[in-house]
Amino acid sequence: MHVPDGFIDAPVSVATGVVAAGAVAVSLRGARRELDERTAPLAGLVAAFIFAVQMLNFPVAAGTSGHLLGGALAAILVGPYTGVLCVSVVLLMQGVLFADGGLTALGVNITDMALVTTVVAYGLFRAIVKLAPHRRRTVTVASFVAALISVPAAAVAFTVIYALGGTADVAIGKVFAAMVGVHVLIGIGEAAITALTVGAVVAVRPDLVYGARGVTARPLEIRSSPLAPAAPGAVARAEGPAAEPAAATSDTSDTSETSEALETSEPTGTPAPAAAPRRSARRVWWAGLAAALLCAGVVSFYASASPDGLEKVAHDKGIDQKAEDHAAKDSPLADYGVKDITDARLSGGLAGVIGVGATLAVGSGVFVVIRRRRATAESERG
Amino acid sequence: MGAGHAHKLYREGRSPVHALPPHCKIAAVFCFVLVVVSTPREAVWAFGAYAVLLAGVAVAARIPAGYVLRRLLIEIPFVAFAVLMPFIAEGPRVEALGMSLSESGLWSAWNILAKGTLGVAASVLLASTTELRALLLGLQRLRMPSLLVQIASFMIRYGDVISDEMRRMRIARQSRGFEARGVRHWGVLASSAGALFIRSYERGERVHLAMVSRGYTGTMPVIDDVTASRTQWMYAAALPLTALAVCLTGWMLP
Amino acid sequence: MTDPATTPPSLQVSGLAYAYPDGHQALFGVDLTVARGERVALLGPNGAGKTTLVLHLNGILTAGTGTVTVAGLPVAKAHLAEIRRRVGIVFQDPDDQLFMPSVREDVAFGPAAAGLRGAELEERVRRALERVGMAEFADRPPHHLSFGQRRRVAVATVLAMEPEILVLDEPSSNLDPASRRELADILRSLEVTVLMVTHDLPYALELCPRSVVLSGGVIAADGGTQELLCDEELMREHRLELPFGFDPRSVRVPVFPVR
């Protein structure tokens, strides 16, 4: 998705550069307000984390794999300001050191991937967290939806930038369809990984999830008071983090224990009553995800075999010579998402993919609603 | 990233290009790329001239052509796509309609290919003649906000440490017989990512403690600074100025 | 040699109690005096409050009750910068301590933050690195050094500030025997007050004539290191265990010169 030099003309590159600089300046101020003098080490370490985690490969199927973009993850974990800073620094370093993303396109890349992704993801995340019941699962679901939408949102932002200053003669509609379509697919992977990662962090150090502050704290407090025997453990879990900054300096053993607990992916400290619905919900969620991915695969494969709606229209109107062109434009941009999906499938299966994406978005919405209802029912029962 | 890559990125040398102050080089490369991007795509010869200019810089920096080309190869999968896509993507219909009508498409592909490649080449030359540390000093000198420079320098310092942790976690997973083969293993991988985040964040907190213990109050003391003489600026400006001349000629010629 | 009557002790902690914001109390009235030039080991089981105590020494944590004075200067907000210059803490993980891109810059960080510049700064850095035998590594990035080298550089970063007291958190952890000995040689050669937090009892015996045991948030014992290590009951009570086959009675402790 890193835009190279020459893709966007000079005036728009400069303009996006100004936008990016403004966004970074605002974020600098915001981050400093939140973290004061801790900004540099914390943001630096989180940037290093984003960089490292982009190298973590998530196998999809049959030898293909995807990896995280990290914008939504950063926004949820460390907040929008620090998130923008971290992703911007990662992009800057990738541009300067690895020539990944052009220097003149830095403004485009930052606006697109650091600003839009982060802001959209964080906004959505907060909205869902505010509206839905305050539970740990809400955080996971909210992360999923936030990440799912943030990636196509970046694609939309890119299309807007392209409409203003694109150098290639491709119809805006085509670019839009291609970019958004591809990125809906990428967004599914991004959403799954982001939700799982945030879920893993929430299970161990809920205080570190910026976006979930005040969400996770309440149930933990409630648990501690009524049950005398279970309480001390819960209190320690809930309150440990506050002491952590100081204790962490000497007790590295703590961290390793933490990570081992994480490896088993099921949080061990959860009281038994809460565990059962959680697990079944996870299963439902997994099943949904698997179904969505299956659909995406089948539909795009089918679509690649027979040109469908969009292609047909293009053919009839005699504009499909440009379709070839659009494929040439979007494929380099897609290389950061789910890799190795052959381009014939991509260009052929756009409509299918968009359809699946929409279905999934609606499905997630329904899922959220059901969850909320079930959660309220549960809280009424107990 | 970090050391592993950093060492491949930077090529030690004593050439005049290496000796130029980093901020001059960054400014020069940036202006050069900006000029390249502003060049009309029809001026094919101009892009040739830019390539010759960059080749000149590479020679002056004693960076072997093979090295630059190899770095280009790593960075240009998108170029391969740009070249191949119009011919293979749409199957038989390319032969039917493509060749006669794709002129503007070809121009676009050429435009992106040429400008993108020149941009990558210029960045590669910059990264291979400037040390990581110097790059950061250069950015600082170019008035990049100091907080941003600090974040970048922490990222570079700890990129390795964190990648190492990630590697160790992978080995720990494999040692327990786990191998990620598909989507159903994402949960475990994501837990690792989550653990990695926690470790990174906690390390950030410890680093902050260590900094505060040595008198950090929010601003980094200026330990090293880079300065450039007028002559050095002139040397550095040679590249973008020549390019500008080429570009202007490109606009004036029909 | 200085006159103990006129020189204030390097470190004086009295009645120090502290509870974390969450209510967990870690220190319950610690009294500790470390005279100038002394080398003292701070022993204690996990969770005894050792790290909490250390973080009070340079004002990262502020005492609930009680006082900490460093060479006569009380630890308080008003002169935190001076306190942090006087108290050099070497943290356990050198990767946390060495946060700058090169060894030289890292060692220069402390003095530069205190306002030192130019030739004076260079001289300070050179001297600190020479004292730990790392002068030729000045321009290397920290992550290219071995663990032992990194720990030595971490000591240098603190020495460069010319501290009144050097506080080491687990200095021997993760070191191979040779690096361990090299670090011991370096620490012995320094003419600075040392407070060493450690679980490594032989190391404490080797380097520190005096030890204090912190247990349950109070100083549970204070005396000659050899005496303490030989007191089996005390050791058991505070979960301090000697490594297999190590008999502190059999060790002839070198006589330390009094400074």
From TrEMBL, chain A:
<keyword id="KW-1003">Cell membrane</keyword>
<feature type="transmembrane region" description="Helical">
    <location>
        <begin position="7"/>
        <end position="28"/>
    </location>
</feature>
<feature type="transmembrane region" description="Helical">
    <location>
        <begin position="40"/>
        <end position="60"/>
    </location>
</feature>
<feature type="domain" description="PDGLE">
    <location>
        <begin position="282"/>
        <end position="372"/>
    </location>
</feature>
<feature type="transmembrane region" description="Helical">
    <location>
        <begin position="284"/>
        <end position="303"/>
    </location>
</feature>
<keyword id="KW-0813">Transport</keyword>
<feature type="transmembrane region" description="Helical">
    <location>
        <begin position="141"/>
        <end position="164"/>
    </location>
</feature>
<dbReference type="Pfam" id="PF13190">
    <property type="entry name" value="PDGLE"/>
</dbReference>
<dbReference type="Pfam" id="PF01891">
    <property type="entry name" value="CbiM"/>
</dbReference>
<dbReference type="GO" id="GO:0005886">
    <property type="term" value="C:plasma membrane"/>
</dbReference>
<keyword id="KW-1133">Transmembrane helix</keyword>
<dbReference type="InterPro" id="IPR025937">
    <property type="entry name" value="PDGLE_dom"/>
</dbReference>
<feature type="transmembrane region" description="Helical">
    <location>
        <begin position="105"/>
        <end position="129"/>
    </location>
</feature>
<keyword id="KW-0472">Membrane</keyword>
<feature type="region of interest" description="Disordered">
    <location>
        <begin position="233"/>
        <end position="277"/>
    </location>
</feature>
From TrEMBL, chain B:
<dbReference type="GO" id="GO:0006824">
    <property type="term" value="P:cobalt ion transport"/>
</dbReference>
<keyword id="KW-0812">Transmembrane</keyword>
<dbReference type="Pfam" id="PF02361">
    <property type="entry name" value="CbiQ"/>
</dbReference>
<protein>
    <submittedName>
        <fullName>Cobalt ABC transporter, inner membrane subunitCbiQ</fullName>
    </submittedName>
</protein>
<keyword id="KW-1003">Cell membrane</keyword>
<feature type="transmembrane region" description="Helical">
    <location>
        <begin position="109"/>
        <end position="130"/>
    </location>
</feature>
<keyword id="KW-0472">Membrane</keyword>
<dbReference type="InterPro" id="IPR012809">
    <property type="entry name" value="ECF_CbiQ"/>
</dbReference>
<feature type="transmembrane region" description="Helical">
    <location>
        <begin position="233"/>
        <end position="253"/>
    </location>
</feature>
<dbReference type="GO" id="GO:0043190">
    <property type="term" value="C:ATP-binding cassette (ABC) transporter complex"/>
</dbReference>
<feature type="transmembrane region" description="Helical">
    <location>
        <begin position="72"/>
        <end position="89"/>
    </location>
</feature>
<feature type="transmembrane region" description="Helical">
    <location>
        <begin position="43"/>
        <end position="60"/>
    </location>
</feature>
<keyword id="KW-1133">Transmembrane helix</keyword>
<dbReference type="InterPro" id="IPR051611">
    <property type="entry name" value="ECF_transporter_component"/>
</dbReference>
<dbReference type="InterPro" id="IPR003339">
    <property type="entry name" value="ABC/ECF_trnsptr_transmembrane"/>
</dbReference>
TrEMBL record, chain C:
<comment type="function">
    <text>Probably part of an ABC transporter complex. Responsible for energy coupling to the transport system.</text>
</comment>
<dbReference type="InterPro" id="IPR003439">
    <property type="entry name" value="ABC_transporter-like_ATP-bd"/>
</dbReference>
<feature type="domain" description="ABC transporter">
    <location>
        <begin position="11"/>
        <end position="241"/>
    </location>
</feature>
<keyword id="KW-1278">Translocase</keyword>
<dbReference type="Pfam" id="PF00005">
    <property type="entry name" value="ABC_tran"/>
</dbReference>
<keyword id="KW-0067">ATP-binding</keyword>
<comment type="similarity">
    <text>Belongs to the ABC transporter superfamily.</text>
</comment>
<dbReference type="InterPro" id="IPR015856">
    <property type="entry name" value="ABC_transpr_CbiO/EcfA_su"/>
</dbReference>
<protein>
    <recommendedName>
        <fullName>ABC transporter ATP-binding protein</fullName>
    </recommendedName>
</protein>
<dbReference type="InterPro" id="IPR017871">
    <property type="entry name" value="ABC_transporter-like_CS"/>
</dbReference>
<dbReference type="GO" id="GO:0005524">
    <property type="term" value="F:ATP binding"/>
</dbReference>
<dbReference type="GO" id="GO:0016887">
    <property type="term" value="F:ATP hydrolysis activity"/>
</dbReference>
<dbReference type="InterPro" id="IPR027417">
    <property type="entry name" value="P-loop_NTPase"/>
</dbReference>
<keyword id="KW-0547">Nucleotide-binding</keyword>
<dbReference type="InterPro" id="IPR003593">
    <property type="entry name" value="AAA+_ATPase"/>
</dbReference>
